[in-house]
Amino acid sequence: MVSPLVLAVICAGYATGAFLGWGSPELAQIMGDFGLSFAALIAAISCLRYARGGATGSESSFRPAWLLFSFSSAMAACGNGVWGWYEVVLRREVPTTSAADFFFLCFAPPAIVGLLVLAKRPVTKAGWVCLALDSWLIGGSLLTLSWSLALARTAREGEGEGVAHATLTLAYPLLDIVLVSMVLALHFRRSSANRSAVNTAIAALALTVLCDALFTSPLLHEQYHSGQLLDAGWFAGSLLLAYAPWGARRLPQPPPRRPAVAPRGARPSAVRPRPHPQPATRPLASSLAALTPYLAAAVCTLGILYNVIAGHRVDRMVVFAGCTVVLALVIRQGIMLLDNIALTHELAQKENHFRSLVQGSSDVIMIAAPTGILRYVSPAAAGVYGRDAEELVGSELASLIHPEDLGRVVHELRRFLAAPPAEEPTTRIECRFRSGTGEWLNVESTVNRHQGGLILNSRDVTERVRLQAQLEHSAEHDPLTDLPNRALFTKRVRKALGGRRSSDPGTAVLFIDLDGFKQVNDTIGHQAGDELLIQAARRLQESVRAGDTAARLGGDEFAALILGDGTRDPAAREYQVREIADRLRLTLSQPYQIDGNDVRVAASIGVAFAEPGIGAGELLRTADLAMYRAKKGGKNRVELYAPQMQAEVVRTTELAARLRTALNEGEFAVLHQPVVDLVTGEVFAVAAQARWRSAQGILFTPAEFLRVADENERAAELGRWLLEEAVELAAERMRAGHTTPVSVRLSARRLLDKSFPLGSVEALLARHGLPSGALIIELADSDPRISFDELERRLVSLRRAGVRIALDGFGSGYAAINALRRLPIDLLKLDRGLVEGVVESARLHKITAGLLRIACDLGMQSLADGVDVPEQVLALRAMGCTHGQGMAFSGPLDEFRLRRALRRGEYPVPGGVALPVLSGRSGPLLGSHNETPVPPT
Predict the structure, then answer these.
(1) What is the DSSP string of 302-320?
(2) What gap in Å lies between CA 404 and CA 406, rounded to an integer?
(3) Alpha-carbon gap, residue 200 to 237, rounded angstroms
């Protein structure tokens, strides 16, 4: 607000100086002439700058108007400058007709055209006619009044001094009348763009015209001289016009109102909107615009009455102007009448159109009064609610809404009515409505304001709500068993851990896995497997307590949430939950009747108790760990979670991650352990073994990293690497003259793995040039899930390529006899468990002797693994075992020590006969049996 204050101070200072006479006649003339010229020049420059660069956006269309205002102000500046030239510089009176008159006369026409540019342009031809008629009504009435009061006498007095002087004398007031007419007409038809600047410009021109009218009046014209108070009006008008385009549009706007939130709990009959104050300028302006023709006729009538009352002769100009004003009023009223008839007809058509839309709409449209009483209900209510519209009219809206939804609906309506309509014109409410049959329908309503009340556009969404409920049920339940799925189970576990039961230590999660379910799918089909899952889910649902949750997590995995009963005794809660888990295990392990057959599966259950601060995901994970421990411990059992399970998982995970890094970084090395002929001591073959010495200097035993490798996807990569390294080193030894075969241990599952392509072993032998018999594959005890037909075909293919096959771990697996019967085996390798007790145990001695006798009868060579003491050598040789491998001869050797051993060619074997069984004697070990270190790479 600094700029308006500065402008007011400058204008007040000029008015004060003019009122006091400026202190001297010379200064009064300077301020009255050149001061006005300077102010008009400022206005011209300001409007010109705004027109050339300041007007942007929607204001740019008004640039011609501001250019015309600039030109008009420049004319006023030139006129005042010429006036000052005569009075101040030449020090003589201004001539009756001078260049100043030319400039002053050029002030009004550009301003009039500029006001026309600012006016809101009519759309139709009738609108243009009405604009012209309104302008003439204002101008004609002012001409009639001013001619009656002063202009007639001025015209008569000017006739004696010549036509030119009379014309010039009348030109000023006539142009002012036209300018005033345009100012008034524009006030009622101004454009909405930059309204503040337009209003300020209109005020500036109005002030200038008012001062011009006072100057031309006979009362002041004869006594006027420069520097009087009248000049303050022209000065203020020029500065106000200079300020209009720049300062008026930057006036601060009032901040937006915040919607008030109404309290809850009120009935709709008490819902009333808060009135918002609306500006009164628009209705007042519309009323004055409608009264303009009548006010103009009244002014014209006053002009004629003045002449009659004063006894003057009615001038022909007054009669002519009055008649044209009356004629213009009649024409304008006729146009307005035609417009009203057209608007009435159009309104009737629109009303019929919207009535048809409302009555034909499938949605129910209701109008509620501010008291909550229904004033109108559309005919669609009969089809939607089953109730006639006439029956609903007059009833209370609250009586139709379900009591459980009423409070929420009232709160939303009060909030909506309290919000400003411009910010929130509509709202949406979903609730239950009572139908004609007494049932509750789900109804969605769009609510609008209507004369303090409400308009509700409602539709029946019961089917959509029912379908949405079905979708939500399907999203949270297992489609096969209809038990809660993992998402819903996790949500309920989270609720149990975070609600009022958060401090209850008795809450537990049971993680259940069906043992042997895969065999059911593989043997009798997936349909039978689905039926088994349905029956198991039914048993689980019936076995848990009321309030507990049974769920299917996926596949053959189930879970149960057991809520605590508030007991604080850890032993009591553990006993209670274990009893529930054992009951579930026995229930799920009972035979299942499927297609008339008894199908049996067992259940392994892991139990985890809720602890302070534990989350739902962590609780499920710990129960899962306990379930896996139960499966590893023999299946069909219950295992409680212990913290060391998590530590074991972490260690296994870290070891697996290190294993992946070791494979990429080359931290593995291959050692070879000699296989010795138990009779001659010659080296029959060398067994390749992997060793891992990490970059941190940690030496992992084969049992550690091989167990981790078997449980992750790196096992195939590790087996492939060991085979390639062993074959490559064997080829190098062949070229150095050592023809000893190399044996590599591979499981049947890895040999048939899809990531281990068929033909890769044959291609590896061909690439390195190994002769037939140079590679021995030790086949680990076959997995029962492996197809013997496929395995047999693969081994036959390897035999054709010159690869010899050894059956590893013979004597420990249940499928050994089947393997001997079907697979092409060259060498039987006894399990280490048989060899370790062959001297001390008579039973193991007989079993081992029998197995070796079978190998001999089948014409196979035999190999004992884990021969660590001389007594074992003597005992195995006496039983007919042909070869041995173990610390009794040598531990695993690096490549340097291996070649030295191969050059030596044999190991000393103990002589004599075998020691008696169970003698308890053991002789000294032969040679050095320490594992050789892996050379640095």
Answers:
(1) HHHHHHHHTTPPPPHHHHH
(2) 6
(3) 10
Helices then strands (H, E): number in the chain?
33, 21
Helices within 455-554 (DSSP H only): 462-476, 486-498, 517-524, 526-543
Q: 672: helix, coil or strand? A: strand
Is residue 585 helix, strand or coil? helix
Question: Is 311 a residue whose pLDDT tops 70?
Answer: no
Q: Tell me the one-letter amino acid at 751.
A: L
pLDDT at res. 312 = 61
Q: Please report which residue ranges of 769-885 form alpha helices under DSSP H.
A: 788-800, 816-822, 832-836, 842-857, 870-879
Cβ 792 vs Cβ 815: under 8 Å: no
End-to-end distance of the chain based on CA atoms, in angstroms? Answer: 85
Q: Which residues pair with 883 in a beta bridge?
A: 677, 863
Confidence category of residue 760, pLDDT binned at 50, 70, 90 = confident
- CA 378 – CA 360 distance, rounded (Å): 9
Please check whether the domain covering 477-641 is classified as CATH 3.30.70.270. yes
pLDDT-derived band at 916 (thresholds 50, 70, 90) equals: very low
Task: Provide the residue ranges of all domains of the chain, joining segments of one domain with +.
Answer: 4-248+290-303, 361-466, 477-641, 653-902
**What would the two tokens of residue 624 be?**
């899962």
Distances (CA, A) of 287 to 42, 74, 141, 186, 451: 37, 37, 19, 15, 22
Q: Which fold, 653-902?
A: TIM Barrel (3.20.20)
| Gap between the Cα atoms of 825 and 855, Å rounded | 10
Q: Are 505 and 610 in contact (CB under 8 A)?
A: yes
SS3 content of the chain, % helix, strand, coil (to 5): 55, 15, 30
pLDDT digits (tens, 9 = 90+) for 652-673: 777 777 777 777 777 788 899 9
Q: How far apart are CA 659 and CA 715, in angstroms?
A: 10
DSSP class per residue in 591-658:
-EEETTEEE--EEEEEEEE--TT--HHHHHHHHHHHHHHHHHTTSSSEEE--HHHHHHHHHHHHHHHH
Tokens encoding 600: 């049996």
Q: Is the dihedral of CA 348, 352, 355, 361 positive or negative?
A: negative
Q: Report the C-alpha gap between 599 and 523 in whole angstroms.
A: 11
What 3-state DSSP class applies to 883? strand
pLDDT at 272 over 50: no
Q: What CATH number was assigned to the domain covering residues 361-466?
A: 3.30.450.20
**Among candidates 127, 136, 156, which has minimal Cα distance to 300?**
136
pLDDT at 217: 64
The mean pLDDT value for 275-280 works out to 42
What is the rounded distance in angstroms from the CA atom of residue 331 to the CA atom of residue 136? 12
User: Rounded CA gap, 47 and 114, in Å?
Assistant: 12
Q: Find, among 132, 226, 111, the residue nearest to 175 by Cα.
A: 111
Burial class (CB within 10 angstroms; exposed 0-12, middle 13-18, buried 19+) of 337:
exposed
CA atoms of 711 and 660, how far apart (whole Å): 13
Distance of alpha carbon 491 from alpha carbon 535, whole angstroms: 25
Q: Round to whole Å and give the CA distance between 637 and 345.
A: 89
- Residue linked to tokens 């896995």: 513
Residue 378: exposed, middle, or buried by beta-carbon count in 10 A (0-12, 13-18, 19+)?
buried
Local confidence band at 726 (pLDDT 50, 70, 90 cut-offs) = very high
Under 8 Å between Cβ of 508 and 575: no
Tokens for 424, please give them: 């929130």
Report whether 445 contacts 401 (CB < 8 A).
no
